Amino acid sequence: MDIFKPIKTLNKRTFKQKKGRNFVAVIAIILTTMLFTTLFVLSQSMTENFREMTFRQAGYDAQASFKSTSKEVADKLEAHPQVKEVGRSIVLGTAENKELAGRSTEIRWANDSYASHSYAFPSVGTMPKEKDEIALDTMVLDRLGIPHNLGERVTLTWRKDMNSQETTESTFTLCGYWEENQSSYASQAWVSEEFAQEAIENASVTQEDDPSQILGTYMVQVNLNTDENIEETMEEILGDIGCTGEEYSINLAYDSSMDTQAFMENLPMYAGMLLVFLAGYLIIYNIFQIGVAADIQFYGKLKTLGTTKKQIKKLIYGQAWRLCIIGVPIGLVIGYLLGRVLVPVLVSFQDGEILVSADPLIFIGSAVFAVLTVYISCMRPAKMAGKVSPMEALRYTDAKSDGKKKTKKSKNRAVLYSMAWANLGRNKKRTVMVICSLTLGLVLLSCFYAKNASFDVEKYLMDLTVADFQIDDSTNASSEGFDPRNGTISQELLGEIEALNPRETGRLYYDTGEIALSDTCIANMQNFYTEERLADYASYDPTFESWKEGYDAALTSKKAQARLYGADGLILDAAGSEGYILDGEYDPEKFATGNYVLAIGPAADPGTGMPTFSVGETILVNGQELTVMGVVSPLQPMVSGNETSSFSMDLILQADVFVSMYPEDCMRKYYFNVAEEQTEEAQEILKGYQQEVDAGMSITSRQTMIDQYEAETRSNGVMGNTISLVIALVGVLNFINSMVTAIVSRKKEFAMIQSVGMTKPQLRKMLITEGLSYAVLTLLASYLLSAFGVGVVVRAMVSGGFSTFRFTLLPLVICTPILLFFAVLIPYLCFRNLEKQSIVERLRME
Q: In this structure, are residues 697 and 103 in contact, taking their beta carbons and an 8 Å threshold?
C-alpha cells in the first residue's frame, strides 16, 4: 500500500512547474561545480607534476638511497618486512667520448628495480643480459650518431683508474633504449652484471680500496611500504639489521619543504575556490530568494492549510537537492575535461609525460563543495519562506517598505526614469546581489590582467642573456667543469657567424690561478664578512663549510684562488654597465689599453664595502701589473657554469690581455647580435652545427628565453582569466535571471499601468532604463573597486621581481559596451515576450 507523502509530491510537481527558474539554477550549479572540479584537478595535478619534476631532477623516485654501501647491506635491507623493494647498481666509470662532452654518462650495472625507478628502463628492448650488451637513452645514441636500432654497435671510452690518464675502449651491442630524462644532469649506460664483475676483478684498484675511485661503487635504492615518516622508518630498519652507521639520503621529493612549496604553488587555486564559492553563493542565493519572493503567496496558502515551518524548509531544500542531482554530475564531467585541457598549459615547464590527476577525492571534494554552496545559499530563502504568515503573504508586493511614503514631484519627461530607479529599490537586497555578482567578475578580470601586464620580459632577460645568441663550450656543462685546453667552439663555426655580419659580438675566456692578497683586500674581506653575515650564509648555503675553509685559508696565507675572465665586446660592456657598477667606474677606452682589471664582488647594494681589491689598487695577475678600475656585480651570462663551493677572487681582464697570458686556452663563450631578418638564419647555423658537429654545445637565444618566459607566465594568465570570465558569466546569468524574474513577476502590474495610459514604447523604455541602471551602478562600482585593486593591491603584489607596474583598466573598458549591450538586449527581449499576451489576459492573472 502506497503512503501519500504530500511534501515529496508537492516538491516533484513544483519542480516540474518552474522549468525556467530551474534551468537558470542548474546552469549556475553546473558552472559552480565545473570551477570547483577544474581547480581541484589543477591543484592535485600541479602537486603530482611538481613531485614528478623533483623525482626526475633527483634522478630516481625511490624514498631513500645509499650512495656507497655493500651487497651484504642490500641483502639485509631486502629481507626486512618494511622494505617493499631494493634497487641495486654497481658503478664502473664515466664515458669520456668526445661526442658526450657536457653530458655525464655513467657506465653501470643495475637490476630492473634500480633502472625502472631511475627513469632509465628500456622502453624498447631489454636490460643487458649478455656480457657485451648495453642499454642507453636516446640522447646518448644521438650524440654518438647511432641509429635507434637494436643490435647497433656502441663503443665507449672510459677510465678504470680515475687517478690515471689511461683509458679503455669497450664495444657493446645495443639491446635496449629509452627516452632521456632531460631534467637529470646524467645519462645511464647499463651493462651486464657479468661485464661489471669482470671489470672489478681485473681492476688494479677499486672504490673499496680507494674512496677517490668510482669503479666498484655499490649503490642502493630503497622503496618502503609507506611514504609516511621515512627517516624514522629508515633508522628503525637500519637498527634492526645492525647497520646504523650506514649513510643514506632521503629523496628530496619526500621532504616536508616540498609539501610547503607545493602548497604555495597551489595557493592561487585555493584562493580561486573561495572566489568560486562567493560567486556561486551570490547567484544561487539570488535565484532561491527571487523564487521564494515570487511564490510567497503560495507558501502563505500552504501555511493556511497547516504546513509547518519545517515542511516548507524541506520543500525548499528538496528543490535544491533535485537541482544538484542534475547540475553537479554535469559540472563534474565538464570541469574534469576542462582541467585536462588546462593542466598541460599550467605545467608546460616540465619535461616528460604530464600527469593529469583522476583521484576520486577530486570528484568527491568538488561535489561536496558544490552541494555545500547550494545548501548555504538556500538557508536564508528557506528561513524566509518558513517564517511567512498567511496574512503577510497576501500583502507581499516584493518591495521592502519602511512605513514612510515619500511623494516626489517630477516632470513628465522624468517619470519613466524615476519609475525605473524606483523599481531597483523595491528589493534592495536583490539589486545589491546582482551588482555584487557582476562587479566581482569585472574587478577580478581587471586585477588579473593588470598583474599579467606588469610582467617585464626585459627584466626577466637581464639576468639570463645579454645577446641575441650565446654559445657555450660543450665542456662548460660537464661534471668536471670547463676545460680551457680542449674547447669545442671552433674557428669554422665562428667564421660562419662572422659571415652574417653580426651587429655586435663578444668573447669570453676563463681560467684559474693563484693571486696574492693585499692588506687592504684582507681588511675589506674581514669588514664585509662579519660574524652575523657568515652565520646568515651558513643558514641557507649547503656549500658554506667548503667555502669557509677556503676563506680562512686565504686570510692565513694571504693568497687565494683567482677566477680570471677574459672578455671584450658586448659581454664586457654589459658587465660594466651602470646597473652593475658597485664601486669605481668602467671606462671602455682606458680598459682597452690592457692596463686595467675589473673585480667581481658579491651581489650587494652599491656603496657597500666589497670583499675584494679596492679601486685604484695595483695587483699582480700572472706576472703582469694591472690596476683595479672598478668593482662590478656578477653578471649571470658571464659567471654561470662555475663551481661555487670554493672561495675565490674573481677578476675580469681585457680579452687580448688574457689570450697573451694563456695562449693555449680556448674560448668559453661567444655572444653575438644579428639583424632581425637574420635571426632564423643564425638559428639554423647553430642548430646545424650542434646536430652535425658538436651535440654538447649549448645554445641560448634571446627568442628561446622569451618563449620560456611566456610559458612560465602563461599559467598565471590562463588560470586568472578563466576564473574571472566564468565568474563574470555567473554575474551575467544572475543579471539575466533577476531581470527576467522581475519582469515576469510584474506582468499584471504592467498591464494595469498600460490600461491607464502608458504606451508600449514608454514601457519598453522604462524596462531598458531599468536594465541600464543595473549596468551603470555595476560599472561605477567596478571602476572604483578596480582602480583601488589595480592601483593598490596589484601594485604591491608586483613590486620587485620581473615586473614593472602598469596601471590599466583595459578589460573593464572592453567590457563596458558589452555590459551596456546586454543591459539593453535582455529587457528588450523580455518586453517582446511580455507583449505576446494582451493587457486583458495579464489583468486576469493571479
A: no
pLDDT tens-digit readout, 395-404: 555 544 444 4
Residue written as grid cell 619535461: 351
Q: Any idea which residue has 553563493 for its cell?
A: 281
What whole-number distance in Å separates Cα of residue 101 and Cα of residue 94? 11
Task: Please compute, for residue 419, the number of CA atoms within 13 A of its CA located in the half-sphere on the CB side.
Answer: 17
Phi, psi of 563 (to 5 degrees): -100, 115
Sign of CA dihedral 342, 345, 349, 350: positive
Nearest to 606 by CA among 573, 574, 633: 633
Longest Cα–Cα distance of the chain, Å, equals 114
Q: Please, are residues 192 and 109 in contact by the beta-carbon 8 Å criterion?
A: yes
Chain mean position to CA 161: 44
What would the DSSP string read from start to end of 405-444? Answer: -------HHHHHHHHHHHHHGGGHHHHHHHHHHHHHHHHH
Ordered DSSP codes for 121-151:
--SEE----STTEEEEEHHHHHHHT--S-TT
Residue written as cell 645554445? 699
Q: Pairing state of beta strands 64-69 and 217-224?
A: antiparallel
| Residue % of the chain over a pLDDT of 90 | 29
Question: φ, ψ for residue 822 (rounded to 5)?
Answer: -65, -35
Contacts of 704 (CB under 8 A, 6+ apart): none
Q: Nine-digit cell at 600?
A: 667581481
Q: What's the Cα-to-Cα distance from 752 to each of 12, 558, 759, 838, 843, rounded to whole Å?
A: 34, 102, 12, 12, 7
| Separation of CA 408 from chain center | 58
| DSSP single-letter state for residue 794 | I
Domain boundaries, the chain: 1-59+256-396, 62-250, 414-464+702-846, 504-673
Closest CA to 283 of 386, 373, 379: 373
pLDDT in tens, 423-463: 777 777 778 877 887 888 788 888 888 887 887 777 777 77
Element (H, E) at 219: strand 217-224
List the Cα angle 834/837/843 in 5-degree steps: 100
Q: Are 279 and 442 in contact (CB under 8 A)?
A: no
User: Which residues, 6+ apart, have CB-to-CB distance to 53 below 8 Å?
Assistant: 183, 349, 350, 351
Count CB neighbours of 671 within 10 A: 26
Q: How many Cβ atoms are within 10 Å of 415's Cβ, its own excluded?
A: 13
Predicted confidence band of residue 544 (pLDDT cuts 50, 70, 90): confident
Q: With the CA atoms of 584, 585, 590 and 596 taken in that order, what torsion angle do they form, in degrees rounded to the nearest 10?
A: 50
CB atoms within 10 A of CB 305: 9
Listed residue (230, 214, 345, 262) closest to 54, CA to CA: 262
In DSSP terms, 191 is beta-bridged to 134
Euclidean distance between the first and the last CA atom of the chain, given in angstroms as a whole number = 38
Angle at 841 between CA 840 and CA 842, to 5 degrees: 90
**Would the pLDDT of 481 be above 70?**
no
Task: Using alpha carbons, list the distances in angstroms from residue 498 to 566, 637, 669.
Answer: 20, 21, 15
Residue 24 is predicted with a pLDDT of 79
CA-based nearest residue to 609, from 634, 587, 584, 640: 584
What is the distance between the alpha carbons of residues 294 and 316, in angstroms, rounded to a whole number? 13
At 774, which amino acid appears? Y
Given the C-alpha cell 629523496, which residue does it identify?
251
Note whether 823 and 771 are within 8 A (CB).
yes
Neighbours of 286 (CB within 10 A): 27
User: Among candidates 700, 559, 606, 584, which has minimal Cα distance to 652?
Assistant: 584
The answer to whether residues 828 and 768 touch, using CB atoms and an 8 Å cutoff, is yes
463: Cα separation from own chain's centroid = 20
**Residue 102: what are its φ and ψ, rounded to 5°?**
90, -10
pTM: 0.65
